[in-house]
Design a protein that fits this description.
- It is a single chain.
- Helix content is about 50%, strand content about 15%.
- It is built from 17 helices and 10 strands.
- The strands form 3 sheets. It has a 4-stranded parallel β-sheet, with helices on both faces. The chain has a 4-stranded parallel β-sheet with strand order 5-6-9-10.
- It is globular, with a radius of gyration of 19 Å.
- It has one domain: Metal-dependent hydrolases (TIM Barrel), CATH 3.20.20.140.
- Helix 8 runs parallel beside helix 9 and helix 16 runs antiparallel to helix 17.
- Helix 7 links the parallel strand 2 and strand 3.
Length: about 350
């Protein structure tokens, strides 16, 4: 007899996280302490509980642009080597405490150089922090370039340079509309020529053209969010009909890094009940569940899974399927992926599925 699908039991099972932003997952108390340490005086409040509520309220605006504005505060306190080490270590600790056994955490090195650090120092500090985390979690990182900036080639070269030290891929992020991924083709070409991995924020605030360009021009291995792929699915007498792009994404098993709570907050989905993850799971797309920004959206992997259970009536089999999807889609080497699936994920789910 399976254990009850409570958030406490969900926290017990092993989870895999592919889409989590370092500057979106700080502890509110850490933001306050780091702000005091560096003399940053622009926080809306210095009470950690109130600050957490402010971030959640500001993020829940229905606008991706407004959502992204909240990062001004977290990035401002992540401008020293010591702060980056601390934030990275705490991220690993918090995820491990939530039962995450493998995580790929992304950040944009170019955003952390305002106080004189160079890009290499930024990456080295974050990797050091991850290494100080608990042994129960494997943490790797993705280096993100900003869509509106012109440093993507530098960041791509940085990702390749640290590929043997914990960096497993390259990403671009930021406002989609007006900043297509094709502006950064040189960087994507370089990464692929170096046999490295690419994930791209696409299909969150902009539609099918963003997804198409990310896949067919930029060679993305995974889609960050990919929510708008649902726009290429129609219904005839209640039967779903996949358009050519949606069919290609499913046929090629392109992983979708979906972040349900965040997608509602940014307006990418009208509500959790109307989030396309339910339909896409039923149609057997390569769906994964992620947090995106734990501070801004007030969420964890366990709360995301619990919300999906409540909304769609999913069971342990569904959660296991999603977790294995994520581990299969990770950018770490195949032998590590297989070992985590066979030795950690499957036994972990078997334990809760066979105990009252």
């Amino acid at each position: 007899m399976a254990a009850a699908l409570t958030i406490e039991n969900i926290r017990r099972v092993p989870k895999v996280l592919l889409h989590d932003h370092l500057d979106g997952g700080l502890r509110a108390g850490t933001v306050v302490e780091l702000a005091d340490a560096v003399g940053y005086a622009d926080l809306p409040t210095r009470d950690p509980e109130e600050l957490a509520g402010w971030f959640l309220g500001a993020a829940h605006s229905g606008s991706l642009v407004r959502y992204l504005e909240t990062f001004g505060h977290t990035v401002a306190v992540m401008q020293t080597r010591e702060s980056l080490v601390r934030v990275a270590r705490e991220a690993a600790e918090d995820l491990a405490a939530d039962g995450v056994v493998y995580a790929e955490i992304r950040f944009a090195p170019e955003l952390h150089t305002e106080r004189g650090m160079d890009l290499d120092t930024v990456v080295q500090a974050v990797l050091e922090g991850f290494a100080l985390g608990p042994s129960s979690i494997t943490v790797r990182c993705l280096l993100t370039a900003m869509r509106h900036a012109a440093r993507s080639q530098e960041i791509a070269e940085l990702a390749v340079r640290y590929r043997d030290d914990g960096v497993v891929g390259f990403d671009i992020a930021g406002a989609e509309k007006g900043f297509p991924p094709t502006r950064h083709l040189d960087a994507f070409d370089y990464v692929r020529q170096q046999n490295a991995h690419v994930t791209i924020h696409a299909g969150e605030a902009f539609g099918l053209p963003s997804i198409w360009e990310a896949l067919q021009f930029c060679g993305a291995d995974r889609l960050g969010h990919g929510v708008r792929i649902v726009d290429d699915i129609s219904f005839t007498d209640g039967v779903p009909q996949l358009g050519r792009l949606a069919a290609w994404v499913r046929d090629q098993r392109v992983p979708l890094e979906m972040c349900p709570t965040s997608n509602v907050h940014t307006g990418a989905a009208p509500s959790l009940a109307e989030h396309p993850i339910g339909l896409l799971r039923d149609l057997r797309f390569r769906v994964t569940v992620n947090t995106d920004n734990r501070l801004m959206s007030g969420c964890s992997m366990s709360s995301e899974m619990a919300a999906l259970v409540d909304t769609f009536g999913w069971g342990w089999e569904d959660l296991r399927w999603l977790t294995i999807n994520a581990m299969k889609s990770a950018f770490v080497h195949f032998d590590r992926r297989l070992r985590i699936i066979d030795e950690i994920v499957k036994p972990g789910y078997e334990a809760v599925m066979s105990s009252a």
